[in-house]
Amino acid sequence: MAVRIDVEYLGDLHTRATHGPSGDTFITDAPVDNGGRGEAFSPTDLVATAVGTCVLTIMGTLAQRLGIDLSGAKAHVEKHMATAPLRRIGRLDVNVVVPAERAVAIDQAQRDKLERAAMHCPVHQSLHPDIAQNITFTYEAPAPG
């Protein structure tokens, strides 16, 4: 099934993207280091965001099937740009953090399954192999006391 996304150039390095099925929209801007004002997500920021949201969504899908609540889990994504031979995304570092109140209920076998699922996120699998993708997982420990 295809999904249509319409993108309109607004001028001054801004675009508006419209999600066909829902009508939801967002604006992009070029990053400051590439002539923009950095007022919104850049296109490469959206790629980084797509990896983080995909990893959490895939983990969430499996967690539902396993009866695990992953509410409050976060993905912190750092995008590193490369400049040679071309300007492109060089590396994405993703750290998935499961909060202590959720982590205590997830045993090691379930963690292994969730982490394997995350590594099969379609966005992660779709990016060019020259983009280094480092995905790590942190299961917070309960506070002492």
Shape, per Cα inertia axes: globular
Helix content range: 25-40%
Tally of separate helices? 4
Please report the total strand number as a whole number: 6
Order of helices and strands: EEEHEEHHHE
Q: Output the structural class.
A: alpha+beta
Q: Approximately how much beta-strand content do the residues carry?
A: 25-35%
Using the CA coordinates, give the radius of gyration. 18 Å
Features:
alpha+beta, 145 residues, 4 helices, single chain, three-stranded antiparallel sheet, three-stranded mixed sheet
Structural summary, described in words:
The chain contains four helices and six strands; from the N terminus they run βββαββαααβ. The strands form two sheets. The chain has a three-stranded antiparallel β-sheet with strand order 1-2-3, with no helix packed on it. α1 runs antiparallel to α3. The N and C termini lie far apart (52 Å).
How would you sum up this structure in a few lines?
With 145 residues, this protein is of the alpha+beta class.
Helix-strand layout with pairing:
Layout: E1 5-11, E2 14-19, E3 25-29, H1 43-66, E4 74-82, E5 88-98, H2 100-103, H3 108-119, H4 122-126, E6 132-139
Parallel strand pairs: 5-6
Antiparallel strand pairs: 1-2, 2-3, 4-5
